[in-house]
Write a structure and sequence with these properties.
Distance between the termini: 36 Å
Low-confidence stretches: none
Helix content: 10-25%
Radius of gyration: 13 Å
Structural class: alpha+beta
């Protein structure tokens, strides 16, 4: 299954089941937070990666995350399909404690 959302800048971004399984394999704290990934894409702040300008990190503060985390971070790869259409997808997502947001 593929879920698609749109960020605040009008970019269509998708999350596949394969990527979600990857996220859960590496970041067990994300279990039960798939909806927060899509919400973070829609509402979060975005920062471009300095080394790979096709990657962006979206982040959003939440006050009800587990294990003393308070921010969801979603890494998105921007690109184009062979037909020239947008191919923007979630690479990974995780939770962090960001002391700056409190």
């Amino acid at each position: 299954m593929k879920e698609t959302g749109t960020d605040r800048f009008g970019n269509s971004i998708y999350l596949t089941d394969e990527r979600w399984e990857h996220i859960l394999d590496l970041h067990f704290e994300m279990e039960g937070y798939r909806d927060r990934v899509l919400e973070t894409l829609r509402q979060g702040t975005r920062k471009q990666d300095a080394l790979d300008t096709n990657k962006h990190k979206y982040s959003q503060f939440y006050d009800d995350l587990a294990d003393d985390f308070n921010t969801v971070v979603v890494v998105v790869k921007f690109g184009q399909a062979d037909d020239g259409s947008a191919n923007n997808f979630v690479l990974t997502a995780y939770q962090v404690y960001d002391y700056k947001v409190k």
